[in-house]
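Appendix B, example 12.
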Amino acid sequence: MRIRSFLATLLVAGVATTATAEDIDLGLKKQFSGRLVLGGLTNPSSVSFSPSGVLTVCDSGNGQVLLVKDGKAEKYITGFQTEYWKVDAETGAKRFKLGPLSSVWVNDKTLAVTNAGLGDGKETVVFYDAAGTVDSGKATNSVGPTSDDDKDNGEGNLTGLSVSEDGSTVYVAGQGSDAKTWVLSVDVASKKLSGLASADDAGIEINSPMDTMPWGKNSILALYSGAGGKDDGLIVQWNVKKKEVVRKWNLPGLTDPMGFAQIPETKSLVVVDNNWALTEVKAGRLARVNLPKEGDDAKVRVIGEKLHGPVSCAFGPDGDLYVAQLGAEFDKDKGQIVAISGIKKFTGKKKPAAN
């Protein structure tokens, strides 16, 4: 399905511009439709909504968090330090400039943001009660090395924030070192960040946790992307009290899943598959996923196969799915937020034939 061209006034990085949005082929099944919400971002890494329904975007490469109101983006938190996530071993080229990777509203007033451009062992989660700069919030501690591996410098690339139903805990996906993979948690009252569950300790070889989600009483789901370009993505249900695995499901057909969201009023999920590559943005996928009670494989149905480097998703108050994607090129002002309609009401079942 193509998003039709239109003129839109955008406020990105503090500069209002009028731009013509090009048609974007998301490769959606015919029962879905999409539209461009925001463009001109650099490596956008997270979409979320405030309790009152305000779209919140981590414009990661520009080191800021934006709020989108009435179709316009305004700066909310600025001044985050950025770093390049990868350096090409052969050419020395720096790639994937990243700063704040994730944000989540703890309540009507407080926004939690990962200060993820500081490097492994230095990163924190920062809480803000009003607009400001990176230093105007209250930060957690950082988490140092958790293994004896010389390459383990501590937890970093903090992402995938979610908040417990009672607002007392924020869950975090950490990617500091493949030597030991962690899902972490923050006690909101004390602002203490600590390791919650280690895949390695549970005998799970798949690493790179990317996103988290509360899932029933005393448990969360964690989404693991695994090795780049390999079909080894995984969803793990963790008991947060016992800190042990409840269930786990493979994600057949998805190579680099990076974000997920629960479809409202269902137990089904949507997952965005980045299909990551070091040198280019490849066609990514959007899939509807069901987690069966039996078996090791999730039921995966691809409903879009030409997204442009999707990394995060969240359902808005209008029932549409909002997706942050890198766009045609990373490290450029090509990043976008797109909205996809039709998922909430779609059951995946064919309507019965008319008599």
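Residues 94 and 173 are 24 Å apart (CA to CA). The longest strand covers residues 299-308.
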